[in-house]
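Methods — Computational structure assignment.
A single polypeptide chain was analysed. Its primary sequence is given first, followed by the predicted tertiary structure written as structure tokens.
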Amino acid sequence: MNCYCGHLKSYANCCKKIHNNITIAKTAEQLMRSRYIAFVIANGDYLMKSHHRNTRPTSEKNSIVAWAKSVNWMRLEITETTKGLENDTKGTVTFNAYFYEHGKVDVIHEKSEFIKENNHWKYLGLSK
């Protein structure tokens, strides 16, 4: 079975490696994909770990996990990336995350900002 992030590798050979060692996410998009999977499998620890310390919603972890478990995740669509490559320090990833909730399909559309912290990518928040 392919990884839910959209790559043609298995979860074990794709996002699980990043979940186990965040430093191997070489691009902002790789981190974004691994965060999506963390929502799919309700991995709150990874969501907090991959979130920049200045914007990390630690007090909301339990409610984020509860919500992630309450919906059926369908697919991730990356629509644009700006910078965020291995040698960059900042980048953005625009995506659509489709899910099924309360009898209907819904989508999270977001332009996310990422920065490097301690030489590895972290999610900062919504891009302004």
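Note: The chain has a mean pLDDT of 95.
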